[in-house]
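> call design_seq(struct)
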């Protein structure tokens, strides 16, 4: 039997995404967001939803560019800090000691120490209520060479991305591999005659 919990944002897992932007003075900022993910294959696009009250919201509206940075488990403390501190009050990069690097294709910084960085230009934004969803076309992906297989595919066990459980407010790591995608379900496909 199921119990109704009402309308909630309980979608598992939620990725931990660190969104980086420049402000009007060209100073870098980073904020953590869990409301985001892939939204289109061609062109490759990601979406992230931010509240208007955030410093990053104004930067996105001004620069029309952002990076999505995927922190590893080793940077859980810094990723959490980026989500609870305000750029209005302190320089987050100075406080964490992480490195803001100017992107090659857009007007936004990425975090050198994080294993994966997506450079995105804003192609659309949608007012949803408390949040505004920014859709960014991915202009380039940067990945540490140490976590690449043949063909440039990432090895998730080496990346060790953080995920978020909204109900408990806890961060988790990625578990064991369960099956091969686009393969395990083939046994259930209707057989052709």
């Amino acid at each position: 039997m199921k119990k109704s919990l009402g309308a909630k944002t309980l979608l598992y897992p939620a990725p931990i995404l660190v969104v980086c932007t420049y402000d009007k003075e060209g100073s870098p900022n980073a904020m953590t967001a869990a409301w985001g993910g892939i939204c289109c294959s061609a062109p490759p696009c990601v979406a992230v939803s931010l509240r208007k009250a955030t410093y990053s919201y104004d930067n996105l509206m001004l620069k029309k560019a952002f990076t999505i940075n995927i922190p590893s488990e080793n940077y859980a403390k810094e990723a959490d800090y980026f989500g609870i501190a305000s750029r209005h009050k302190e320089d987050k990069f100075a406080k964490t000691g992480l490195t803001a690097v100017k992107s090659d294709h857009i007007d936004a910084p990425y975090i050198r120490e994080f294993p994966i960085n997506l450079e995105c230009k804003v192609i659309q934004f949608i007012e949803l209520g408390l949040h505004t969803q920014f859709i960014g076309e991915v202009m380039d992906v940067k990945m540490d060479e140490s976590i690449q297989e043949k063909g440039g595919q990432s090895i998730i066990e080496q990346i060790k991305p953080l995920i978020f459980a909204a109900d408990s407010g806890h961060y988790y790591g990625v578990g064991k591999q369960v099956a091969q995608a686009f393969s395990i379900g083939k046994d259930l496909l209707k057989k052709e005659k």
